[in-house]
C-alpha cells in the first residue's frame, strides 16, 4: 500500500470529498507527523503505534577499498514501536 492507495481509500470512504481533497488530507497528516518528529516529539497513533526519534552513536567501520578503519558519525533515526493490537495481526 502506498500514499495514493491511502488517498483512494479516504476518497471512497468519505463521499463528500473530492479525490484531490483526500490527497491533501493524507499529505497534511504525513507532513504533521514529519514536523513533530523533526522537533524531537513522539507521535502516538492509538491502535497503530508510536514513532520517536533516537540518537545513534558513532561507530567504527572499515573502508572496503582500502581496509582503513573509519568512524561513522552518529545521527538521528526514526524508531517505530507497534501497538499491542498491531502486534497481534
Can you put this structure into words, describing what you see?
With 89 residues, the protein is an alpha+beta fold. It is 39% helix and 28% strand. A three-stranded antiparallel β-sheet has the order 1-2-5. The chain has a two-stranded antiparallel ribbon with strand order 3-4. It starts with a helix and ends with a helix.
Topology:
Layout (H helix, E strand, L loop, with lengths): L2 H11 L5 H20 L4 E3 L3 E7 L3 E4 L6 E4 L3 E7 L1 H4 L2
Antiparallel strand pairs: 1-2, 2-5, 3-4
Helix pairs in contact: 1-2
Poorly predicted runs are: none
| Strand numbers in spatial order across the main sheet | 1-2-5
Major beta-sheet overview: 3 strands, antiparallel
| Share of β-strand residues | 25-35%
- Mean of pLDDT: 94
Strand segment tally: 5
Helix content: 25-40%
Order of helices and strands: HHEEEEEH
What kind of oligomer do you see? Answer: single chain
Shape: elongated
What key attributes describe this structure?
single chain, 89 residues, alpha+beta, three-stranded antiparallel sheet, two-stranded antiparallel ribbon, 3 helices, 5 strands
Give a summary of the structure in a few sentences:
This protein has 89 residues and is α+β, with helices and mostly antiparallel strands.
Amino acid at each position: 500500500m502506498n500514499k495514493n492507495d491511502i488517498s483512494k481509500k479516504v476518497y471512497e470512504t468519505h463521499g463528500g470529498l473530492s479525490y484531490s481533497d483526500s490527497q491533501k488530507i493524507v499529505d497534511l497528516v504525513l507532513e504533521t507527523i514529519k514536523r513533530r518528529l523533526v522537533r524531537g516529539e513522539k507521535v502516538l497513533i492509538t491502535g497503530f503505534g508510536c514513532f520517536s526519534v533516537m540518537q545513534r552513536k558513532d561507530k567504527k567501520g572499515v573502508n572496503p577499498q582500502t581496509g582503513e578503519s573509519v568512524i561513522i558519525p552518529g545521527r538521528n533515526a526514526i524508531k517505530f514501536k507497534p501497538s499491542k493490537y498491531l502486534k497481534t495481526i
